[in-house]
Amino acid sequence: MSRTLPINKNDYIDVVFEDLTHDGAGVAKVDGYPLFVANGLPGEKAKVKVIKTGKSYGVGRLIELYEKSPYRVDIPVSEKHKYGGCQLEHISYEGQLKYKENQVRQVLNRIGKLENVTIHPILGMENPLYYRNKAQVPVGEQDGKLIAGFFKPRSHEIVDTDESLIQLPEVNEAVQTVKEICSKLGIPAYQEETHSGVVRHIMARYGKQTSELMVVIITRTKDIPQKNKLVEEITVRLPKVKSIVHNINSKRTNVILGKKTTVLWGSEVIYDYIGNVKFAISALSFYQVNPVQTKVLYDKALEYADLKGEESVIDAYCGIGTITLFLAQKAKNVFGVEVVPDAIEDARRNAELNEMENVEFADGEAEVVIPKWYQEGNAADVLVVDPPRKGCDEALLKTIIDMKPKKVVYVSCNPATLARDLRILEDGGYKTLEVQPVDMFPMTTHVEAVAKIILNL
Ligand SMILES: C[S@@+](CC[C@H](N)C(=O)[O-])C[C@H]1O[C@@H](n2cnc3c(N)ncnc32)[C@H](O)[C@@H]1O
């Protein structure tokens, strides 16, 4: 039986916003039915017009604000910033931190049903702008010129963007410069509808501590027309560039990077430091995008691991071994597991680079490799996980519960899956002691958190 909706298209209604969506839209509830309204902030009262009603939610347009949030910053919400990932641009930084901290508290309570957990005040940035060390920007064409920017939500229309509130200036400059050079040399942009053309995305990565820049040009084609000229101009106009890489993605797909990369000029990697540890970063590897807050996050993970020097540690989802090497400074040995083979190569290189001999890395899925280790009689005293947004695989959580490491440190970029996984661990004999939210992504709706979990049997 279909449910009758409490509102109809074109209705004008008064609402109070309770929450924000991932895209930063206000969420109001009408008899329990969620209505998403761009530019509405939690706590605000407004008149809205209903412009769409679906089975599970509706969409409205803000008509009049009756009561403003004390955290609203009175600026017009800029399309460029919003689509470029600055969904919270119209909220003061204080308001953003409050919202994110509350989100962690609510979700741990509602989904995790966790009691007696200390949730600390969120750790924010002193300067929350221009922090991102990486951008990957889609390329298109408009009036015969190359454009590069961001897709409008739920569309394939690119908004040409020459500025960013959150990218490091060096990253922004690199993207703009490569766009201009490609345009000048007449290198065609990729055309999604016809699956033709050449340049799909421009990516730039910058080592903040080393001032080393990597440029990655992602194309549909195996060859880049005017390749030598392109490389030459990039090296002249971007003196900090240390690596120019070509990545080929010939598939019809929304995935940005293809599997094949070749170095067009310079080194295969750039270097950066987090604390005293030096890292080599290649084009395909995951590397945290906010170098300032990464140090804050890793220091907290290390504090929660509370290592004395005698422990065997597993670092699941280790990427290029960043947390692994942090932990290795204080542990007897650390085993890192990661699914991207290039990242594991980087991780091994990073261990050598830092002359750390008490680390080993395995290439594979954490939920396959760690159960196998356990079946072979290996166990860890401390287990660290830092999974992608979907959280830990159930098979891994089950192995943790069977293996019984004394401590688990969970680094999470999604409070909802963190809460789900903590509940599974609690039901399996673990206790969450404390959670530290960290703002790794100011101006966006994302929030990171680290949890300290102990065996409670
Ligand atoms: C949030 S990142 C964390 C990386 C690293 N700890 C860091 O801080 O840079 C998650 C990592 O998990 C990897 N990954 C995703 N699924 C995986 C799986 N099933 N098994 C192992 N690694 C996986 C991704 O490639 C990525 O490097």
Order of strands in the sheet with the most strands?
6-21-22-20-19-16-17-18
Broad structural category: alpha/beta
Radius of gyration: 24 Å
Query: Largest beta sheet, briefly?
Result: 8 strands, mixed
Nutshell version of this structure?
This protein is an alpha/beta fold. The protein has helices at about 80-85, 95-110, 170-185, 225-235, 290-305, 320-330, 340-355, 365-375, 395-405, 415-425, and strands at about 10-20, 25-30, 35, 45-55, 60-65, 120, 135-140, 145-150, 160, 200-205, 210-220, 240-250, 260-265, 270-275, 275-280, 310-315, 335-340, 360-365, 380-385, 405-410, 430-440, 450-455.
Topology, element by element:
Elements lengths: L11 E9 L5 E5 L2 E5 L7 E9 L4 E10 L11 H5 L9 H18 L7 E2 L14 E9 L2 E7 L6 E3 L8 H16 L14 E9 L4 E8 L7 H11 L3 E8 L11 E7 L2 E6 L2 E6 L8 H15 L6 E5 L5 H7 L4 E6 L2 H13 L5 E5 L2 H10 L6 E4 L8 H10 L3 E6 L2 H13 L2 E9 L9 E8 L2
Parallel strand pairs: 3-5, 6-21, 11-12, 16-17, 16-19, 17-18, 19-20
Antiparallel strand pairs: 1-2, 1-4, 2-3, 4-5, 7-8, 7-10, 8-9, 10-11, 12-13, 14-15, 20-22, 21-22
Helix pairs in contact: 2-10, 3-4, 8-9
The site of S-adenosylmethionine (SAM) has 21 residues, from helix 6, strand 17 and helix 8.
